[in-house]
Write a structure and sequence with these properties.
The complex is a heterodimer of chains A (298) and B (308).
Chain A (H helix, E strand, L loop, with lengths): L1 H36 L4 H5 L12 H32 L4 H15 L2 H15 L6 H25 L3 H9 L4 H30 L2 H4 L32 H11 L5 H35 L6
Helix pairs in contact in A: 1-11, 3-6, 3-8, 4-6, 5-6, 6-8, 7-8, 8-11, 10-11
Chain B lengths: L1 H53 L1 H4 L5 H6 L3 E2 L6 E2 L2 H32 L1 H17 L2 H19 L7 H25 L3 H9 L4 H30 L2 H7 L16 H8 L8 H32 L1
Antiparallel strand pairs in B: 1-2
Helix pairs in contact in B: 1-12, 4-5, 4-7, 4-9, 5-7, 6-7, 6-10, 7-9, 7-10, 8-9, 9-12, 10-11, 11-12
Classes of the chains: A mainly alpha (298), B mainly alpha (308).
């Protein structure tokens, strides 16, 4: 009888605590969206922020975040996939492989602020790129690369080995097998993982404060010459991203409506991350079905 | 004659195919080697640069080792500058440990809920919750902490609301997903017959969980806890927003304090490169980096224990 009572109590405790986590998330999302969504308008999303007056927006910051994301993915995706394929298909167990695995592990658990400081020292100062989108993208590369390697490695490892053996039986070269047989099968998982990691990059701030900078020049959205300093497409201009902006107005915001702006910007950030999550799932399924002619939903 | 011709052509074509294979393989291999090399170069240069700047506090500015690690006075710009970093080191450890203490039981319960109590809809309910929690950016956690947790603590407890407790609470929510997902993986990898034999002996579900499941998976769960602590230790902005940033060792949970990351965040932009103040901040970054190595080392040790 006593054991049964203990069992019941334990079950209740576990269920309560698990539901508490659900409640925490519901409360968090509810609070962010409830506080923020009423502040989101087309004007808020497109206008520039104001330092000390009411009514500033987040237009340049939002653009910077998206542009930086694209730049980062352009660098990390090919590099991460290359290294990931190596880890999954070529690396033989041994000292060197063990070392590379350790590197990936250490790199992925580095605090993002240390990556930011490294970027400040090497990319901003020694390479002389200054506070710029390129510096930010390179710092995020250091931050994002181990993630991409892991995603690719897992995706390749989950491909059934018969596919590879069939390729060998046909007399294909290993690289041919990797690119034409294994890669299409692994692609859905890679794309899903990339979009999810993009969500993380989108919200990253600490690594960007010291590399992409904490200010944004006056942007002229009619100027599409990538070399002009006021052009939004210039990759060598400083760029404050949305996440950095939220941090800045929370710690030193002077505008009277700073709290509302922070709430609105947080809501935009969270909604964007939610969209990334949904798109990742949708795309993963879609491409999986397209490429493998399979009806399995996974 | 014709037959022979055909033969030579066939031999030639198979030869050129072999060569094509070799070239393909060579291109693929060199591309991959380049990618891997870049990974290694990035970490080697990172370790080199952070270390070389971090030790200059001790080599160039002649700050004593024990003055830095055990000194409690932080006044880098004073007439008699002193670089005691103990308050920040203590702040980092206190908030990290508190966050782990809050988050671990919650995460383990969530994992048990998903694998043992209601494996069907429990997983369907909690999996997206965990994914969303890990996707929310840290500045948003900081913002919510600042506008919900801090006022709440200010109203209920003594003090200003900002401080160690607020920092630990924010961090605990941030590391929940890390611990939970590792724990879920460990629990679902447990062989079924272990559980079944326990039930067959007449044990209740709780007895099975407490005496069989948890002890067997403990090293794996601890891996999750350590990974969560590594994340908490390195988290910068969310903590900085709610902890108050006072350079003192906190004596109560509701007192303002600082962590290594929060001091670096605030100080790095306002100091000139190469000044003693700046160098001291780099030394803290070095401490952060060494702690990361330590966490990775502990995780590896735990994983070794797991495989035996």
């Amino acid at each position: 009888m006593k054991a049964k009572t203990a069992d019941k109590i334990a079950t209740y405790v576990i269920v309560t605590l698990a539901l508490l986590i659900v409640a925490v998330l519901a409360g968090l999302l509810g609070y962010i969206l409830f506080r923020g969504v009423s502040h989101i308008s087309w004007d808020f999303l497109t206008s520039a922020p104001r330092k000390i007056r009411v009514g500033g927006g987040i237009g340049p910051q939002l653009f910077n975040s998206l542009f930086l994301l694209v730049l980062t993915l352009l660098i990390t995706v090919p590099l991460g996939i290359g290294a990931g394929i190596y880890m999954a298909e070529y690396a033989r167990p041994g000292r060197i492989t063990g070392f590379i695995r350790l590197v990936v592990e250490v790199l992925s658990s580095f605090p993002s602020i240390v990556v930011g400081l490294f970027g400040l020292l090497l990319i901003v100062n020694i390479f002389g790129l200054g506070f710029s989108l390129v510096s930010g993208a390179l710092a995020l590369t250091v931050f994002n690369l181990p993630l991409m390697v892991r995603i690719t490695e897992q995706a390749f490892r989950s491909v059934p080995s018969q596919q590879k053996e069939a390729g060998f039986a046909l007399g294909l070269s290993k690289w041919k097998i990797v690119t034409t047989v294994l890669f299409p099968v692994a692609l859905p998982a890679i794309i899903t993982g990339t979009i999810l990691s993009a969500g993380r990059v989108f919200g990253e701030a600490a690594a960007l404060m010291f590399t992409a900078g904490m200010s944004s020049p006056r942007l002229d959205f009619g100027n599409w010459n990538p070399l002009s300093p006021s052009s939004p497409l210039n990759p060598f201009r400083p760029a404050e991203t949305l996440a950095v902006h939220i941090w800045k107005i929370n710690s030193e915001g002077l505008a009277p409506d700073a709290v509302e702006i922070a709430a609105g910007a947080s809501a935009v950030l969270v909604i964007t991350v939610l969209i990334f999550n949904l798109v990742a799932r949708y795309f993963g399924r879609l491409i999986y079905r397209k490429l493998t002619a399979s009806r399995r939903m996974n | 004659m014709r037959v022979q011709n055909n033969e030579t052509i066939r031999v030639q074509s198979s030869k050129s195919r072999v060569e094509k294979h070799h070239i393909e393989d060579l291109i693929g291999r060199s591309y991959m080697s380049l990618c891997v090399l870049l990974l290694i170069v990035s970490i080697v240069s990172m370790v080199y640069f952070v270390t070389s700047r971090g030790v200059s506090t001790f080599t160039i500015d002649k700050v004593g080792f024990s003055d830095f690690f055990f000194g409690t006075t932080w006044s880098p710009e004073g007439d008699h500058p002193s670089f005691g970093a103990l308050p920040f080191i203590a702040g980092s450890f206190i908030t990290t440990l508190l966050a782990a203490l809050i988050a671990s039981p919650l995460s383990i319960c969530a994992a048990l809920f998903m694998t043992e109590i209601v494996p069907g809809w429990g997983k369907k309910l909690l999996q997206p919750v965990i994914e969303l929690l890990s996707g929310i950016p840290s500045v948003v956690y900081g913002f919510v902490g600042l506008s919900v947790i801090v006022p709440f603590l200010r109203n209920v407890f003594p003090g200003q609301g900002i401080g160690v407790a607020a920092g630990a609470l924010v961090l605990s929510v941030m590391i929940l997903p890390t611990i939970t997902s590792v724990a879920v993986d460990a629990l679902s990898a447990l062989p079924r017959n272990l559980k079944e034999s326990s039930f067959a002996l007449g044990a209740t579900r709780w007895q099975t969980i407490a005496r069989v499941i948890i002890p067997t998976t403990l090293p794996a769960i601890m891996t999750g806890v350590v990974l969560g602590m590594a994340r908490a230790f390195g988290e910068a902005l969310a903590v900085q927003m709610v902890i108050g940033n006072a350079p003192f060792i906190p004596t109560s949970l509701f007192e303002s304090a600082s962590t290594l990351t929060s001091v670096i965040t605030l100080g790095m932009g306002n100091t000139t490169m190469g000044s003693p103040h700046n160098n001291a901040l780099w030394s803290m970054a070095l401490v952060l980096m060494l702690m990361t190595f330590l966490f990775v080392f502990i995780v590896r040790m735990l994983e070794k224990r797991r495989s035996i």
